[in-house]
Amino acid sequence: MSAMAPTPVLACVPSAIPADERKAHFELARDLFARQAGERVPLPDGYAFRFDSTAFDDVARFITNERKCCPFLTFEVQLAACAGPLWLRMTGPDGTREILDAELSLGSSCRCC
Predict the structure, then answer these.
(1) CA-to-CA distance for 73 and 103, rounded, in angstroms?
(2) Which of 22, 27, 30, 65 has the most CB atoms within 10 Å of its CB?
(3) Based on C-alpha coordinates, what's the Rg of the chain?
(4) In the chain, which ranges are continuous DSSP H helix?
């Protein structure tokens, strides 16, 4: 018999981000998802967000800390050739989209929808 893999815990732990980086992280998240995201595509297990290629450094900085507080998330970055768009996919187990809705304030007021 093989052992079943443990079910990931769907909880974000903001305190996992170093205290001196936390405020800047949440300000960056607000900027990325309220202002810089040009498009948001719902996926069965999360979301894909389109950014201008110039957002690469901001997206990378966001992922660096976000994976500390939300270890259940999988991050995929696709950067198109010739200065094409950057796509960030954030996916995870059942319930991930609902957590992203709450954590990133992705309600119906999101400008990128």
Answers:
(1) 13
(2) 65
(3) 15
(4) 19-31, 56-69, 96-103
Provide the residue type at 12 as one letter. C
CB-based burial label for 17 (10 Å; 0-12, 13-18, 19+): buried
Question: Which DSSP state fits 94?
Answer: T
Q: Quick one: tokens of 103?
A: 């954590």
* Reported pTM: 0.83
Structure tokens at 37: 């995201």
Place of tokens 């999988």: 74
The SS3 call for residue 62 is: helix
Nearest to 51 by CA among 37, 41, 33: 37
